[in-house]
Specification:
Layout (H helix, E strand, L loop, with lengths): L4 E6 L7 H16 L3 E6 L1 H4 L6 H17 L8 E4 L4 H11 L4 H5 L2 H9 L6 H15 L5 E4 L4 H18 L7 E4 L29 H9 L12 H13 L2 H12 L5 H15 L1 H11 L2 H30 L3
Parallel strand pairs: 1-2, 2-3, 4-5
The structure holds tryptophan.
Length: 324
């Protein structure tokens, strides 16, 4: 693959589960390790568009930063930073607010959904969220933006913004394409008809101890007859495909075919595999969280690298627009 510039962000809303890991984080690490020019950040300014508590916001931000670093984001290879550290994002977002028609913002599905689920707090930031996101993206002139399905409409809008800006003021921005993450169906352990989400015992968190993983898996819904196929059993198999060995997958598939699949054995194997997979991660994350100054230093260095690029883009933009 040719070397590309890639931008992506994540909102810091608490602990990540293994579905988040497979769906997003793992792909960031892969892109980074393929040698692309990657800008990854924590979208803390987007985080305050929905209800939040200040001490939880700061705690969650540190936790997510430590999670990404411990899982393989390498600050030497990727530019890794907090959105709010680069003041240029908000300035560029303001400029985009002034070229985006209100109607484009009002028709965004995320705005419509969130205005429904947060009726008590439909703030203006929720509406102009995509202008900030377009600024996050276009600032670094990427060719690709890896996001989940729920964010593709926002990336499309960033192309609309780029086009409008370029047509009116001269070419500054590329039109980045969406890099869709592999669609993943990691389901809830408690209700395999729903996607895994981080409530109660339905999710295995990246932070969970081996004992915790095994306790949660023991309770996972399977099926009444051994060997029977059910969404719960399929979910355990897809986890085994991600975290276990080929031999294990073949072994349990055979058992299933013969109609003597032992759920307890499958769950024990899976629990061990997941615990081992994240063992190194848990250790590194604890080390990072125990050194908040070091974490702050890494984020500061990432911000310095991002800022250099952001300032150059903003200078170019201002010049085109006629802002002195
Ligand atoms: N809105 C994204 C989400 O909720 C996070 C985000 C903010 C982002 N800015 C971005 C993602 C820029 C990709 C590019 O997941």
């Amino acid at each position: 693959m040719e070397k590309q510039t890639i931008v992506s962000g994540v909102r810091a809303s608490g602990k990540l589960h293994i579905g988040n890991y497979l769906g997003a984080l793992q792909q960031w690490v892969e892109l980074q390790n393929q040698g692309h020019n990657c800008y990854f950040f924590i979208a803390d300014l987007h985080g305050i568009t929905t209800p939040f508590k200040p001490d939880e916001l700061s705690q969650n931000t540190l936790d997510v930063a430590a999670t990404y670093l411990a899982a393989g984001i390498d600050p030497e290879k990727s530019v890794f930073f907090l959105q709010n550290h680069i003041l240029e994002h908000a300035t560029l977002a303001w400029i985009f607010n002034c070229i985006l028609p209100l109607s484009e913002l009002e028709r965004m599905t995320q705005f419509k959904d969130k205005s429904k689920s947060h009726k008590e707090n439909i703030n203006a930031g929720l509406l102009t969220y995509p202008a900030l996101m377009a600024a996050d993206i276009l600032m670094y002139k990427p060719s690709a933006v890896p996001v989940g399905e729920d964010q593709t409409q926002h990336v499309e809008l960033s192309r609309v913004v780029a086009r409008k800006f370029n047509n009116r003021f001269g070419k500054v921005f590329p039109e980045p394409h969406t890099f869709m993450r592999k669609p993943l169906r990691i389901m809830s352990l408690a209700d395999p008809a729903k996607k895994m989400s981080k409530t109660g015992d339905e999710a295995i968190l990246m932070d969970d101890s081996p004992a915790e993983i095994s306790r949660k898996l023991k309770k996972a819904v399977t099926a009444s007859e051994a060997g029977h196929k059910s969404p719960g059993v399929e979910n355990l198999f897809s986890l085994l495909e991600h975290f276990g060995s080929k031999e294990e997958v073949a072994f349990f598939h055979d058992q299933q075919k013969q109609g003597n699949l032992k759920f307890s054995e499958l769950k024990e194997t899976l629990a061990k595999d997941i615990a081992v997979y994240f063992e190194n991660f848990r250790e590194k994350k604890q080390e990072l969280l125990a050194r908040p100054d070091y974490l702050a230093k890494i984020l500061g260095q990432g911000a310095d690298r991002a800022r250099t690029v952001a300032q150059a883009t903003l200078t170019e933009v201002k010049q085109k627009i006629g802002l002195l």
